[in-house]
Specification:
Number of helices of chain A: 4
Number of strands of chain A: 26
Distance between the termini of chain A: 56 Å
CATH architecture of the largest domain in chain A: Distorted Sandwich
Shape of chain A: globular
Strand content of chain A: 35-45%
Oligomer: homotrimer
Amino acid sequence: MNTRSWILSSIDRELHVETFSIDDDDVKGTPKGWSVRKRTLRGGRREGVDVIEIDNGAIEVTLIPSRGMGVWQAIAEKDRLGWQAPIRGPVHPRDVDLGEPSGLGWLDGFDELLVRCGLESNGAPEFDDDGRLRYPLHGRIANQPADEVTVTVDSDRGEIRVSGIVDEVRFHFLKVRLHATWVTRFGESGFRIEDEVENLSASPAEVQMLYHVNIGVPLLDAGAQLVAPAHTVVPRNDHAATTVDSYDSYRGEEAGYEEQVYFYKMNAAGDGQTRVLLKNAHGTQGVSLVYDARRLPCFSQWKNTTAAVDGYVTGIEPATNFPNPRSFEGDQGRVIVLEGSGRTSLGLGVEWHRDAKAVASGEARVLKLQAGRTPKVFKKPQSGWCADA
Amino acid sequence: MNTRSWILSSIDRELHVETFSIDDDDVKGTPKGWSVRKRTLRGGRREGVDVIEIDNGAIEVTLIPSRGMGVWQAIAEKDRLGWQAPIRGPVHPRDVDLGEPSGLGWLDGFDELLVRCGLESNGAPEFDDDGRLRYPLHGRIANQPADEVTVTVDSDRGEIRVSGIVDEVRFHFLKVRLHATWVTRFGESGFRIEDEVENLSASPAEVQMLYHVNIGVPLLDAGAQLVAPAHTVVPRNDHAATTVDSYDSYRGEEAGYEEQVYFYKMNAAGDGQTRVLLKNAHGTQGVSLVYDARRLPCFSQWKNTTAAVDGYVTGIEPATNFPNPRSFEGDQGRVIVLEGSGRTSLGLGVEWHRDAKAVASGEARVLKLQAGRTPKVFKKPQSGWCADA
Amino acid sequence: MNTRSWILSSIDRELHVETFSIDDDDVKGTPKGWSVRKRTLRGGRREGVDVIEIDNGAIEVTLIPSRGMGVWQAIAEKDRLGWQAPIRGPVHPRDVDLGEPSGLGWLDGFDELLVRCGLESNGAPEFDDDGRLRYPLHGRIANQPADEVTVTVDSDRGEIRVSGIVDEVRFHFLKVRLHATWVTRFGESGFRIEDEVENLSASPAEVQMLYHVNIGVPLLDAGAQLVAPAHTVVPRNDHAATTVDSYDSYRGEEAGYEEQVYFYKMNAAGDGQTRVLLKNAHGTQGVSLVYDARRLPCFSQWKNTTAAVDGYVTGIEPATNFPNPRSFEGDQGRVIVLEGSGRTSLGLGVEWHRDAKAVASGEARVLKLQAGRTPKVFKKPQSGWCADA
């Protein structure tokens, strides 16, 4: 077996690697052209952010251990999968004030292709009866540093894996650990997230997870479409309801556009697997998310087709819940309950379709899942789905 | 042309210079005795703060790129222009909690000679109807790190320039950029701030700016005086009103002194230029601020003649507005409206008068502007001027 | 005299030592086997935390200048004095949001053997009438960096001393400085804290101090006992009242255990000296705190015998006050009033008993102080003692 592992940062071992670079010379039996390197960014609000850049021979992906093992972007030739946020990220968590009374501090660090939202909560901020912040927007996990960061190259499986642990722990309160793993195969135009969430406490805990996958230019364009095996579609609020008839297609840039969100239940295969496709207007570029709808039964589509400089982007977001305030979701039972020391597995695959053929193939797989069924599209927000309904 | 530029920190170029030092040997045609160096401070709450120290042959000025390109102090021989704050600054923004519920976190980093207050707001904290912080004291810009930091030495113009960009950006909210430039001439006892504020958004934005220039010992003393071409003077609140008759003069140190603030409208030349002078009791030391009263129509004088150990200081503050809560100032129209992608220029000159002759010359220029007119001095806070009136 | 001092970090001298290591070769006349080293931790939320590790020949103690000169742990052979918090500390203050609206951010950094709580306040968070945080849990001092950090080895007194200053300063508000000193003797199984609190302001100030000494496994176990010269014991709230009959003994691990707190007044010797002992069930391990009950008249016993993974620990806490909300304590006069520029001395000794004989000796000293007196144990929270009564 030709498997090698490198530990880049470990509190357990009191070890921290400043810079790191390996390539096909370093592991026998691997194809040419892959590499992994780690470095620390400098300047502005990215000062001190560690990134790991993995080139699998087909795409180059940047992971951010400093930001909860989020995925910053993927690059292939001149294309970029991700989006251009108005901030100059990636932003160090020490520059993100999750505890700002508004609960919106999370926005100051948001510029990833894939950002995990959780683990105590995700969704809109929630306040107690005294007006004090109780659950900040999208939770804490994305702004916690990873540790025990390890790179593994496995020539037998043909994989590069990067893993780390990210703790969301407060004494007397929630104590959970994300075991985050990112995996790609040599030459693959995509990657997978293989997470485990562990309850460190001896007492039960409730967690949520939303995978916030964000796509802007060049993939997103006027006429882009979300092809999903939708069982049900519900506009989040009255504003989203106004254009519910075109929920699955995207507009071009529009200054001042107010975001619109649609909640989905997806059809899935018998084993729970489902997939959604976002494709551009001409069907020449696309991205599919592949996941288990039993574990991630709620899907949100976030349209933010504002001006490019304001962040032209859509979020496609498989999750354990809808991003309503935490208490509302709890009342609906949309949380994962972990026993003391319990664990759960969560994750998704991201397939980047870089030509019309790949897009068509991705679309065919969605349509096969849908099997001709017509989604139930509600014209108005629905009770039990929408906090505002 | 003999102009040389050095980039010290650039996200665009992925470049960050750890230490930097140039002097008259490095640019042809420049006089002897100037230097520029950059270093990073260590220890306490200054850990990691980058400073740039410019000696123009006459004065040595310390800029703080880490703190929004503020001006920490100026030194000439044994004199210091600035003040002794009770904190041991300059303080790293990561040690300043702007989002503290009180809205007063800004105070924890305040020790500069010149600190910009803005850009979304400045002035007193404001809260929403639920008591949650909406606008923190004096805004966010002073606690944002600069980037694209560049030093330019221009022997033709005889200038040293230091510029950088400082972003105040939140997704879905305000997205503005300060293009901050600090300029001095070789041998000059002073400097200029040449700022531009750019709206990064495609939608309109409102901004405010207050240049908070802070002077303590040795310049400020019992009997020091503010010589200003005042058109109108208004005490901010009843407490300031109690001593409005001596608004333009300063007391010595007084433990427990409660701050007093006066709002001014200044007379100006036909081109909008105006100037104010702060001089010590004997007229042997002074500092003038020179600025365009059309762009900075509001001036605040902040008296804080408390004990030295508590921060004996005055603020002389040309601004777009008075430092009332943001909503009040908005209702009065005291904001700058920028169109999508719009820009505005703002700035001021600081002249440090280091002998009686220079002070007298500065005073003569103020008196010429005033042209014998008597200011209207209100005895009480005025509606439309003062949030408390 | 053979005394040597090393300055590890000084803003005054613009000096910061990256790593530091001395031992018995470095100071004449000292015994073999001691050493002091300083290093900076990397990774996770400990990134950038400076620690000083002192081996006095008998025990190795870790101090955390980055966290207000707290004492992280003591190690002797395979034993550890301290506790295992659910977080992976020590945590950098820049990762602790004291200003979080809940006032509970302090918990995110809490994992020390000895952490100072103060100086403006300690105890439960307090909010103003608008629900805004006024005093965060346990105050600010433990999350301020030390500076002027100095190591002194004195062969005449046979001591190693580590000192530093820690400022808790806000312009317009409290401005106090902790002069923190930690002292041990060569070969001693213990150490002393010799603090001074200085009011930097010219105006009077009120301060509080609580020494939060935290002990978990292996010392704390089922049947462990607090042997204290108690004059009076009061359960903090009704929950603590339910088991007040066994206030002085400890249970084993119990998942979901809700913390219980008892407030004590201690008997003391004529010079004010008193001491309490925590011993394990078999009396083979113990720790005594020795302090002046005139300066620290209030003692809290915090029982948190939850599951090990949730933080099985007790706090034994000599203080100027009880950890009630600040206003309540102020109303009871349980604050130290410092005149302008005034100072006060505070501190305690920690004796680690590592065998049955040492435990017995420690217990005998407590019993001698108690002199057979029976403590008054209230069955219910008492007015004037307990904010909830």
